[in-house]
Amino acid sequence: MRNPAMPTTLVTTAELARHLDDPHWLLLDCRFDLADPGAGEAAWRAGHIPGALHADLDRDLSAPVTPATGRHPLPAPTDFAATLARWGVGPRTQVVAYDAGGGMIAARLWWMLRWLGHDAAAVLDGGLAAWVAAGGTLVTGAATARPPAGFAARPRPGMACDADEVRHALAAGAALVDLRAAERFSGEVEPLDPVAGHVPGAINLPFQLQLDAGNRLRPAAELASLWRERIGTRTGTELICMCGSGVTACHGLLALEVAGIRGARLYAGSWSEWIRDPQRPVASIYIRGGSAIVRAR
Predict the structure, then answer these.
(1) Which domains does the chain have, with CATH numbers?
(2) Nearest to residue 272, comparing CAs of 69, 60, 61, 75?
(3) From CA 253, how far away is CA 272, in angstroms rounded?
(4) Contact 200/282 with Cβ under 8 angstroms?
(5) How large is the average pLDDT for residues 115-137?
(6) What's the whole-model pTM score?
(7) Termini Cα distance of the chain
(8) pLDDT, tens digit, for every residue of 59-114?
(9) How far is CA 72 from CA 2, 34, 84, 91, in A?
(10) Which residues are catalytic?
């Protein structure tokens, strides 16, 4: 049974500092740059919070890309369980994930831990920038590896859904919330994927709106208000989050959990998977030169 004192959403820099030498706490540095996949690990080696291991988005938090998947498909539960065991995650381990600031990549790891039934998982609010601003120290080089643990996965497959389930859920009145930036959702720009636009019927809530000026998650009441503006009175179980490749969407799921709106699912393949099938519809609408540009596929 989970210790109720274990954080399950966010930890502050002060709370982390108190537990930095706690053998039951494990820090994972999730920094990653989509434009330079090796930059995250290089940054970790150049300076990280003491004791933090590096979790690589491509290598550790994703499966290999195939012609049918998005850019960051979920690994098989058995594969991710093996990774967690190698890192030393046991049943009593409190995992804290952080990234460069806003928590986008760290939230992916947070969600994946819960997906495998490990609820003692949290994100460092404000990330590495908050730690440094609070006077926290950094160390260089590789962290000392922890002994492997017997991680016991208890998968919760219902936390994720595929494209067909998205289609059925939309037809039943569910809300599909896309956490990408507004200009990508509209189709005005698309820097990463070969097709621009969004899933017809989706709602846009750029993940940056969930953050305050210090790159920390906004208070629970503000998050609840922000989400209610988009989803109305729908319950958490009537929500699906997506983004470009199933990463930023997890930031939305973290915000929903903090806001007390629970039960939302992740469309893991997200936009980069949706567009793999030319039979799936695509919509885009934006303003250019004072005129609305509307496209559909």
Answers:
(1) 10-155 (3.40.250.10), 158-296 (3.40.250.10)
(2) 69
(3) 19
(4) yes
(5) 98
(6) 0.95
(7) 49
(8) 999 999 999 999 999 999 999 999 999 999 999 999 999 999 899 999 999 999 99
(9) 30, 11, 18, 27
(10) 243
pLDDT at 1 over 50: no
All residues at 6 or more sequence positions from 193 whose CB lies less than 8 Å from its CB, including other chains:
71, 244, 271, 272, 275
Please tell me which residue, 281 or 144, carries the higher pLDDT value. 281
45 and 140 Cβ atoms separated by less than 8 Å: yes
Full 3-state SS string of 152-175:
CCCCCHHHEECHHHHHHHHHCCCE
CA angle 69, 244, 35 (to 5 degrees): 95
Pair type for strands 291-296 and 283-288: antiparallel
